[in-house]
């Protein structure tokens, strides 16, 4: 059983190791184009940097996240934040838009998420988001598979992520009652602010948590050693092999 994100997310650790996430999300915020007076739902708030920009545009934002720590950090910044899993949204025709950055790939099954998003939107309301796409962190997943496989664990069974292709997600959006205006896969190799080990600590707990605790440091080091020739450039910078799926859709009446 994969460890769910709400069990380990730390707002402080996220800020230290994933500060690049809101920077990558700037284009999807432009795609949202929030305006004054709108009411917007943000499932999976991250560090709230993009949320604050939506508020600055004059919109009212409600943030939901499964992790108590992330919600507490959002509330400390004056944001209306609630502990709700993205699969369990109960809002009913309340929002002009739903916006999500780098969070939807943690929310499975996607069918439940999309049904809740559609229900939360007003007719013709827009759904704008960016998430991990097909082949996101492919090298990292291959390295995890090799290291865990030697220990009798199946990394694909442990994975908490859902990385769809543009075609696959378009089908799910349309089946859920959305008209897709734009959907695309974007290659975004991303320099990490740290080495790969803190990244693995932040995002890879579902994998390493399946091992006995004394074996976890060695397994993490093996993953890093496998990845070093692939993800480290000549300056010594770690560059993650990110692939993003960006989309804008509208709720059908």
What does the overall shape look like?
globular
Report mean pLDDT, rounded to a whole number: 91
Q: Helix and strand succession?
A: HHHEHEHEEHEHHHEEHHHEE
Placed side by side, the strands forming the largest sheet appear as 3-2-1-4-5-9-6
Count of DSSP E strands? 9
Which structural class fits the helix and strand makeup? Answer: alpha/beta
Report the span from N to C terminus.
Answer: 38 Å
Tally of helical runs:
12
Largest sheet: 7 strands, mixed
- Uncertain runs with pLDDT below 50, 5 residues or more? 1-5
Radius of gyration: 18 Å
* Portion in beta strands: 15-25%
Question: Main traits of this protein?
Answer:
23% strand; alpha/beta; seven-stranded mixed sheet; globular; 12 helices; disordered N terminus; two-stranded antiparallel ribbon; 9 strands; 253 residues
